[in-house]
Every structure is written in structure tokens, then in C-alpha cells.
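[job 0412] stage=fold_complex status=start
inputs:
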Amino acid sequence: MNSTVLSKLGLAVNHMSVDCVVLGLAESTLYVLLIKRKVEEDGKIVYDYKLPGGLIYSDEDLDDAAARVLKELTGVRNLHMMQFKAFGSRNRISARDAKWLKDTLDDNVQALVTVGYVALGRIGRKLNLHNAGNEVCWMPVNEALKLELAFDHNTLINDALKAVRHNADADPAILYTLLPNKFTALQLRMLYEFVYNKEIDVRNFKKKMMQLAYVEPLEEYEQGVAHRAARYYRFNRVKYKKSRRGGTD
Amino acid sequence: MNSTVLSKLGLAVNHMSVDCVVLGLAESTLYVLLIKRKVEEDGKIVYDYKLPGGLIYSDEDLDDAAARVLKELTGVRNLHMMQFKAFGSRNRISARDAKWLKDTLDDNVQALVTVGYVALGRIGRKLNLHNAGNEVCWMPVNEALKLELAFDHNTLINDALKAVRHNADADPAILYTLLPNKFTALQLRMLYEFVYNKEIDVRNFKKKMMQLAYVEPLEEYEQGVAHRAARYYRFNRVKYKKSRRGGTD
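[job 0412] stage=fold_complex status=done
writing structure:
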């Protein structure tokens, strides 16, 4: 265990953790990185899911803690992580969570403030590996939110999406970090639908997309698809910056 | 002392606090709410300033802790406070800060993660009272940032301003919560200058302001001023919402 620095003190004090909401887009679905959690309940083994997270060392910066925890638990590194909110509700630990914490940390945890980080990344194949004995998986965000995740992790995911939405309002460029270099109009629209959590009219969207100077159509099309091959587009950062300079003046 | 719940444990563990950056506009100056801090250093008494802040109880929600701490230290209440960032750098406690924490909490604090809250309020007269033995004052933000404040409170103020700026980009309405009901073009421009931390051309600003349907000119003018009496304007929330609906579609 690498999160026992605090718990060695052996007291039921406040603990501090970081939790990472790592989002990734594959095809037209938004995924979130989760870890399968094993809990013993009434003599039976049950499983549920949690976000990658862990306690903060007392000599560690928050940002460093988030990067370390993510790397240790999932192998994912070099992702730009953005702190979005701290969570400290006293209702965030269920009986099951308390049991799991006790088993994992050998400590009674009564309160656990967590600092939420969100990262946008493309889904890489490496992530499907099992790391450090944890079962790491990508789950469609919609499915994850239907489950009862550990702690208040449903809230964390929802608030992370809100933070992305909020940032995308001010700086749409961050959305394109979720997309592959070449993407279809469908992928871009799906991304907007997920982030803004609403259905978007196909024709209106296409029209608006065409007006974005920084979304460039390529002379390339999908290959080997059953339906009509869609055109690829790419995000042009130089044009984007130009358009922003004009806009903010 | 009201922040001794954790410190009674008597161990040098991580502590968690909240700090409040309360901003207020008076005339054309942006102020921040500070508390004078008394520290004994080399046998001498020295003073500096800190943000209103305190430890979080282990059975308390973060938002509740922020509201409680602000009320206890300054008497200010019923202010909408927005969490903007958690700070956990190991370098945020200087030797002086550690000494002050030891004197105040009777405890060795090695690490102190704080959750920053920002609130926008008009300056009220009540705030000039001394509360709970603390010397509470409003200080112009520019002056405060020239001082070496306690802990990393210079960073907290700067990051709070960034958060306000960021939110104002997405929703300019929040800026108007800092203004009196009737305000002059000068006040509005000064506010923009503070929040965006840059000089704004007077004539351009006036022109743009005129284009904002939700900033309504009144048939009222300043009274008893030596210079030419300026016209008053007011923020029309209904028109604002209308203009936003049109904009986001």
C-alpha cells in the first residue's frame, strides 16, 4: 500500500485524497476510467466501481498527488489534469465505503475530503491492461452513471462534466483534445452532445461546424464502413488562436 | 478557539482549512476582506494580514465550513460563496505561519491543504466592525497584493480573481453582483479593469457598453460631485437572460 503515510497514525482523523475523472472518446462514445473494487459484505464478496484515487502524502503537492495516484493505479501518465472541485460532504462515505477503507488502509476513516481532477485523453490500448492488481477499465459515461459508484463518485463525474462544459464555453479548444487528429462530423457532434448533455440537431450542427474556420475539412474519408463513408476533419490550432484573438478584442 | 477539533488530537497530521476571498467594490476600487494577524517573532510583536480562514470540522461540509468561518471571523453572512480551488503545496507554510499556527492551535502543523472560496459582495458598513477580537478590514486588492500576506494568500487572491474572470467570460452577470443597483460607466469600466487586470480604452468601452441591451441608462445622474455629474445605469436581468438565450442557441 502506498497510501498509508497518514493511516499509520492510527487515528480516525480527517483524511485527504485525490480522485481522477479521466474521460476518453472512442468512436462516438464518451468513456470514463474506472477501477473495479472488491468489498466483503455479510461474508460475500461483492464488486463495484470507483474512480482512480488515493490519499495525499503530507509532503506532496496536490497536482503531484493526482499524477502519482493515476499512474500507480492505472499506468496512465503525462495527461494534463485539471483540478475542478473539492468534495467534503460528510455523507460521502457509505457503510460499504467505510468498510473498504478500513480493509484497505487499516484505519478508521470518518471524514474524507477529496480533491477532484479531470483529464481529457484519447483512449489508448495500453489502458486496457490490468495494473497493480487493480482491474482498470473504460466504461461508457452513461453506463457508469447508471451504477451506484463508490463514495460520491457519481457526483464527481457529473461535476467533472460540468467543469469541462464550463471550460469549453470559454475555450472550445479543450474539446478537441478528446478527439483523434482526424475526426468525423458525427464524432464532433457526439462529443458536444455528451459534454452539453443534450441532443443536437444534425443539420444545424453541420451548418455551424462549417462556419468554424478552425475545423478544416480534409480530402479523406472513412474506409471500410458499411454506411456512406464520412469525411474527416481536423482541428487547426493556428486558425483557432486567430479566431479567438479577433473574438476577445 | 473554534478550530481545535482536529488539533486536540495533538499530532502533526495534515490539516484542512477553508479560506475566503471576499471581494467588494466601493467607488471605483476593488477591495478584499482581510484580517490582521499578530505574530511574535524574535521577542517582538509583528503584524501582517491573512484571509479569513479556519480549520474544517470533521463532520462538516466544505461549503458550510466556509460560511461558518467567514461569519465567525468577520460577521459577514448570507454571501454566495463559490469554491474555486484547493491549495496543497508543501511550500505554503512559512516559518512565521508555522509559529502562528502553533500559537493559535496549540499544535504542530506540517501540511495544510486549504480549499479556497470566493465571494462577491458590495462593501457594507457593518464589515468595518471588529469581530471576535480580530481586526477585520477592507483593503484595496492592489495594495494587498503588494504585501506579503500570510501563507500563500497572495496566490489565493490572484487565483480567485482568475476564477471570477473565467466565470465572467461564461456569464458576465456575476460582475454586476459587485456593483450597486445604480452604477456609473466609470464604475463598470473600473470593475472590468480589475477583473481582467488590464487598462480598457474609455471610448471603446462606452461604445461597447451602449450595445449591451441589459445595461440600461437611467434618467438619473450623480449628485453633489465636483466633476460633471455622470449618468447612472442599471443591470436588467430579464433582458440579460433574453440576450443569453439568443446567444447560446
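[job 0412] summary: Residues 37 and 198 of chain A are 31 Å apart (CA to CA).
[job 0412] exit 0
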